[in-house]
Amino acid sequence: MVNLIGRYMNISDKTRVLDLACGKGAVAVKVAQNLRVKVKGIDLMPEFIEYARQKAKEYGVDDLCEFLIGDINESAITERDYDCVILGAAGVDVLGGPSEALNKLKATIKQGGYILIEEGYVPDGGKLEDIRYNRDAYYSEQFWMALFKDKRVELLETASGHSEGDLDSVSGIAAIKARAVELCLRYPEKKALFESYVRNQQDEYADIADSLACVTWLLRKM
């Protein structure tokens, strides 16, 4: 995302970036650190926001970063005139689905502003029935391309969602299972919940590896 913003945008000391569902601030902090632009991150989880604030201080960009606790659906109504808005791995359903999400994201940026969306889609030749976990959250590539045209956003670049070797499902699932065992011992009454979470994560890893194209789209508001 840092690379895409840096290559396409005319960066200045007045550039403003909005990171919705910013999580622990990984993207926001890196954007501020590498591009020296002002970034506002918003997330519903207080613990994530506190962590993001700590990381901003650690990386020396607390003067450029602002992190707030909030519902991003409400933020999409009040936040305006940004040069770029980011929706990372949260998924468009948090903003009401693909169409509504694009409407809300467009409203936060200036004319000619940029939208970065991290998303997964079912590639050509793939079948929605092959998706093991949360299949209702994914759409075909053709669906997205038609929606971009309908919403008058120009697709400037499609970047791979992860590099070769980044998706280490073996160690990832091992860590999740180990943590689930700890939580089952601590909260035995919730054992079924933790075991269900592990199964869902295994299915999601398999989907990303076998059935989904994971990308970052850079769009421009026309």
The best one-word shape is globular
**Mean pLDDT, rounded to whole units?**
93
Question: Cα distance, first to last residue?
Answer: 20 Å
The description of the largest β-sheet is:
7 strands, mixed
Describe the protein's topology.
Layout: H1 2-8, E1 16-20, H2 26-35, E2 38-43, H3 46-58, E3 65-69, H4 72-78, E4 82-87, H5 98-107, E5 109-121, H6 141-150, E6 153-160, H7 169-186, H8 191-210, E7 213-221
Parallel strand pairs: 1-2, 1-4, 2-3, 4-5
Antiparallel strand pairs: 5-7, 6-7
Helix pairs in contact: 7-8
Features:
222 residues, alpha/beta, Rossmann fold, 2 domains, seven-stranded mixed sheet, 8 helices, globular
Give an overview of the whole structure.
The protein has 222 residues and is of the alpha/beta class. The chain folds into 2 domains: 2-165 and 211-221, Rossmann fold; 169-206. The chain is 43% helix and 23% strand. The chain contains 8 helices and 7 strands. The chain has helices at residues 2-8, 26-35, 46-58, 72-78, 98-107, 141-150, 169-186, 191-210; strands at 16-20, 38-43, 65-69, 82-87, 109-121, 153-160, 213-221. It has a 7-stranded mixed sheet with strand order 3-2-1-4-5-7-6, sandwiched between helices. Helix 7 packs antiparallel against helix 8. The longest helix has 20 residues, at 191-210. The two termini are 20 Å apart. The model has no long low-confidence stretch (mean pLDDT 93).
